[in-house]
Structures are given as structure tokens and as C-alpha cells.
Amino acid sequence: xxxxxxxxxxxxxxxxxxxxxxxxxxxxxxxxxxxxxxxxxxxxxxxxxxxxxxxxxxxxxxxxxxxxxxxxxxxxxxxxxxxxxxxxxxxxxxxxxxxxxxxxxxxxxxxxxxxxxxxxxxxxxxxxxxxxxxxxxxxxxxxxxxxxxxxxxxxxxxxxxxxxxxxxxxxxxxxxxxxxxxxxxxxxxxxxxxxxxxxxxxxxxxxxxxxxxxxxxxxxxxxxxxxxxxxxxxxxxxxxxxxxxxxxxxxxxxxxxxxxxxxxxxxxxxxxxxxxxxxxxxxxxxxxxxxxxxxxxxxxxxxxxxxxxxxxxxxxxxxxxxxxxxxxxxxxxxxxxxxxxxxxxxxxxxxxxxxxxxxxxxxxxxxxxxxxxxxxxxxxxxxxxxxxxxxxxxxxxxxxxxxxxxxxxxxxxxxxxxxxxxxxxxxxxxxxxxxxxxxxxxxxxxxxxxxxxxxxxxxxxxxxxxxxxxxxxxxxxxxxxxxxxxxxxxxxxxxxxxxxxxxxxxxxxxxxxxxxxxxxxxxxxxxxxxxxxx
Length: 534
Ligand SMILES: Cc1cc2nc3c(=O)[nH]c(=O)nc-3n(C[C@H](O)[C@H](O)[C@H](O)COP(=O)(O)OP(=O)(O)OC[C@H]3O[C@@H](n4cnc5c(N)ncnc54)[C@H](O)[C@@H]3O)c2cc1C
Ligand SMILES: *[C@@H]1O[C@H](CO)[C@@H](O)[C@H](O)[C@H]1NC(C)=O
Ligand SMILES: *[C@@H]1O[C@H](CO)[C@@H](O)[C@H](O)[C@H]1NC(C)=O
Ligand SMILES: *[C@@H]1O[C@H](CO)[C@@H](O)[C@H](O)[C@H]1NC(C)=O
Ligand SMILES: *[C@@H]1O[C@H](CO)[C@@H](O)[C@H](O)[C@H]1NC(C)=O
Ligand SMILES: *[C@@H]1O[C@H](CO)[C@@H](O)[C@H](O)[C@H]1NC(C)=O
Ligand SMILES: *[C@@H]1O[C@H](CO)[C@@H](O)[C@H](O)[C@H]1NC(C)=O
Hints:
Blueprint (H helix, E strand, L loop, with lengths): L1 H32 L4 H7 E2 L6 H7 L17 E2 L4 H14 L3 E4 L18 E4 L6 E4 L4 E5 L4 H11 L3 E2 L10 H6 L7 H4 L6 E7 L5 E2 L1 H4 L1 H6 L10 E8 L1 E2 L4 E9 L4 H11 L7 E13 L5 E13 L3 H11 L11 E3 L1 H8 L21 E9 L5 H14 L3 E6 L3 H4 L15 E9 L4 H17 L29 H13 L3 H11 L21
Helix pairs in contact: 1-4, 13-15
The protein binds flavin-adenine dinucleotide and 2-acetamido-2-deoxy-beta-D-glucopyranose (6 copies).
């Protein structure tokens, strides 16, 4: 009985390998038909039995949850070296009915750029498409999808120390996913999102055409600035406008535990964080920690860390803080003046004095198991609410929260300007955050369970109908689609949370540019049901 079972497994296994090689062979055949020389094909298409397959797959996995032997693996990996490779890859994938997963920096929190929960898939890995051309005269740059935001910051700094770009804090994040999904960092209150500074793009559509802004039209150009690129085509590059930054910025990190009046200070933070000078961004991190009390006994508390970026000198920052948020008790010695680029390194946890050259190193320092969720808040949490939240966080044990203040520029941009809808009226966005190192299902269930319980606990305090979420904080808990006949209804569930009123326009664009839903994933924009198309 057992022997038969093993035999059956072996047969199934070899069947799968044959099937995979069939896909590879058919794909190669199609590329050949499209005049791609064999030597070039060898450089850009990998089958599972190739020795390079696993290293290429793992090079841009940024979440250990999807780096296990049971994580679904692609049938082929394609690593284009030039634009035309992307075009012909789309044409052949479409012809063969492959489910293409597009990967740039691989930072998707649910790994959907390189794993799939919907059957066989192929990875189109853009890590070799990563040129960056900065023009200080024009205060703009063309940046390709496979470049990382740290490389972009470096290339801007190389040419000008008084220009920057409003994008994320983690410098290994890829342009392709980050910009198509919104993109924000500590310049958010001053300049808004990355997508608020995109002026042109290059996209390969489902027919394999290379389109710029003019050729794709304003609807599609609108959609790929926050609606997620992967529903519409392969983004090859974006043209962005740079923003001015002063020669000196100031950062600080001030921590308060519950014994140091964290509750009152967090409560007050909610009433100033989105209203203060837009040059000032004060992020708030909340974490349960163990401390020793006066009797030297171990106990649990909450640590509130206020981490700030100020576009100006320490003296002006102290004056601003003195009349808007004196309760934090900011002191001159808490403040560190530096260049904008040094502040990029500071926020990404590099030691003082680290060379900017680290931004050109694409290897991650360490890759952990991660889970994230998000929420938006339009009314402050009352003091009693905060007290119950601390209790809950201490009881859960590990999951933390990050409050990212809005206001400033975010209040000025209409919610329909880009697909990203969370603009005026939001005090802050919450990120639920847990990282861990322990392998195995028990740890995974425990830590993911903690984020879900905390999310459930927060229901009375956060946005409702829909309960809003941030696309770049990908969370499959809020709904997925199987691309069945019901995909529109399924897509509406997460679509309204990520895009609110902009969801319908995204669906219209999607239906117009990719009516057969070739570009799809677990949370892509669905097409309109055939019966209800115009
Ligand atoms: C450690 C870490 C820190 C982060 N910090 C921030 C932050 O500070 N601010 C913030 O806004 N977000 C942040 N994020 C979230 C991040 O912005 C998103 O995960 C983003 O989508 C990552 O882009 P990527 O290219 O690296 O990811 P990928 O995993 O490669 O792609 C993400 C999604 O975009 C699609 N996609 C990728 N490239 C293309 C393309 N060229 N054309 C079409 N579709 C494409 C993928 O198919 C996938 O659906 C962080 C994530 C991590 C893991
Ligand atoms: C993925 O796991 C392998 C071991 O199976 C390890 O060598 C590799 O470093 C891991 N990749 C990442 C990105 O951590
Ligand atoms: C960058 O500039 C070079 C040289 O002018 C050009 O060949 C290339 O296409 C440009 N790349 C991008 C992404 O604009
Ligand atoms: C906490 O607040 C109280 C009253 O507002 C004050 O007396 C006390 O000094 C504060 N404690 C700390 C550590 O700031
Ligand atoms: C802070 O403001 C008070 C008045 O509100 C003033 O007396 C004090 O000098 C100010 N301190 C600083 C450092 O600006
Ligand atoms: C960084 O270190 C140098 C000395 O190594 C010191 O002079 C400088 O003040 C430090 N900067 C910050 C922001 O801590
Ligand atoms: C790049 O970063 C990785 C991870 O921190 C490190 O191991 C490696 O030595 C770095 N490479 C270079 C050339 O500095």
C-alpha cells in the first residue's frame, strides 16, 4: 500500500517535471518564432532544473514565509535584459496562457509577485531593467521598474544634494511595485505620495505594445499611479519630478513608556500630528516591551517611539515643537542635523557615518518572516480606548503598530486625482506589524493570529464602510479573487477598501485595456462581467 503510494507520488512528480519542461520548451519555441536568438534565450529564460533557477528566485524574496520548500514555485522564470524582451515575453505568455507574475523589488508583503495561490504561474523578473537617468536641469528622472528606491535616492544625491523624492523608507523596495501601488515615506506631509510626482511612464500592454503616456491615454496613465501596475500591464519605467530638500534636515527619536506618560502624549499626538507644519513628519511606533520596575521585577509596558524628519534646522524644529507639542519634551540633544541623504540612511537603520554607497548594494541584510495589515483613522482614539489597546497589545505579546500621520499636502490633493483614495480627513494610517525568526506553522499561526486579533480589536476606532486599507501594505485577509465567474464580486470586496470610489474607474480601465484578464493576481482589478459591459 505504502509502496504504491510512493510510486504514485514519484509518477506524479516526474509528470510535473515533464509538464514544466513542456512549458519551458513551448515558451522557448515561441521566442524563437519571434526572432529571439538562442544565445539570448539562454540568458533570459530559466527552467526549474537549471542551476540558476533557485538563486534567481530567492534573490528578491523579502519575506521568509514564502521561501520554504512548500512555497509554490514558478514553472519558468524570465529575466528580461531589454524592453523588447518584455514585449515578446508578454506576447508568448499570452499565447501559451501562462499566468504571469511581475516582480520588480519583491517586497510584496504577501509575496504575490513570486508565489501564487491560483495554480501554475511564471515569474517575469525585472531586476535587470534598472537604469536611472537624473536631469537636475529639468528636475526630473526616468527610472526603470527594477531599480530600487535607495538607488534612485543615490543617483539624485550624486547630482544634487538639494533634491530628493518622496518615496519609502526601506531602501531595497522596488520602483515597479512601490510607485504603481502609491508609495510614501517621511516626505508625505510636505509632498504627498510618489504617484503625485509621476509625469510619464512606459508600459507594455497585453498586446505587447510599448506605450508612453501619450500612447496609453490619460485613463490608463491614471490607473498605473496607485491602482497597482500588475492589473494593467508591465511598467517598464516612470518619469518622475524631483522635489527640493534643504541642505540640512533634522531627525529625532524620543521614546516614552507608560510610566513616562506615554498615554497622554500619544493622545495629544493624535490632535497635532496631521495639523503641524508639513515640514515635520512625526511617526509613532507602539510596541509591547519588558521592563524592570523599581522593585527590579520584570513587567510589561508599551513603548511609544516618536521618530521624526524635519525639513530644517534643529533650532527651528525646537521652536515648532515648543508651541505645538511641548508635552513630548523634545530637547536640543535629541535632535540630529544631517543632509537629506544621511537622513535616508538614518531612517533605514544604518549607523551614523555609513557611506551612501550602501544604497547601491541590492542584497538584504536579513530577511525575516513578516505579516502586515493596515487601517485608517479619522477620529482620535479616546484615552480609555488607548488604555484598553495597551492591555490588548501586552496580552498578545509581539505585534506592534506604526501610526503614520497624514494632513499637509495629503489634504490638498483630491481623492480622485490618483487611484489612491485616502486623502483629506485622515489623521493617520496604521500599520500592524510583526516580524519573526522562528520557522514552522506554529509560529506563523501565532504571529499572524496576533495581527488579526489586534485588527479585530481596533474595529470601533477605525474607518468603516469601507474599512480602508493601503494597497502597498498588501493583505490577503481582506479578500482575494479566484478569477472565477464571480471575480467582479470578489474583487469589489478588497477593491473598495483599497480604492474606495476609484474602484469603479479602475474596473472600467481594466475592462477596456485587458478585457480577457490576462494580467491577474490574487488581488488584481477585475473586469466587468461580460453582460454588463458598455
Ligand atoms: C521591508 C519593507 C518596507 C516597506 N516600506 C514601505 C514604505 O516605506 N512605504 C511604502 O509605501 N511601502 C513600503 N513597503 C511596501 C512596498 O511599497 C510594496 O510592497 C511595493 O509594492 C513593493 O514593490 P516591489 O517592486 O519591491 O515589489 P514586488 O513584490 O516586486 O511587486 C509588488 C506588486 O507590484 C507588481 N509589480 C511589480 N513590478 C511591476 C511592474 N514593473 N509592472 C507592473 N506591476 C508590477 C507585482 O506584480 C506585485 O503585485 C515596504 C515593504 C517592505 C517589505
Ligand atoms: C531562502 O532559504 C534558503 C534555504 O532554503 C536560504 O539559503 C536563503 O538565504 C533564503 N532566502 C532568503 C531571501 O532569505
Ligand atoms: C538613459 O539615458 C541613456 C543615454 O542617454 C539612454 O540610452 C537610456 O534609454 C535612458 N534610460 C532611461 C530609462 O530613460
Ligand atoms: C506625567 O504627567 C504628570 C502630570 O501631568 C507629571 O506630574 C509627571 O511629571 C509626568 N511624568 C513624566 C515622567 O513625564
Ligand atoms: C517655549 O515657549 C515658551 C512660551 O510658550 C517660552 O517661554 C520658551 O522660551 C520657549 N522655549 C523655546 C526653547 O523656544
Ligand atoms: C556622526 O558621527 C560624527 C563623528 O563620527 C559626529 O561628529 C556627528 O555629530 C554624528 N552625527 C550624528 C547625526 O549623530
Ligand atoms: C552587500 O550587503 C550584504 C548584506 O548586508 C553584505 O553581506 C555584502 O557584503 C555587501 N556587499 C558589498 C559589496 O558591500
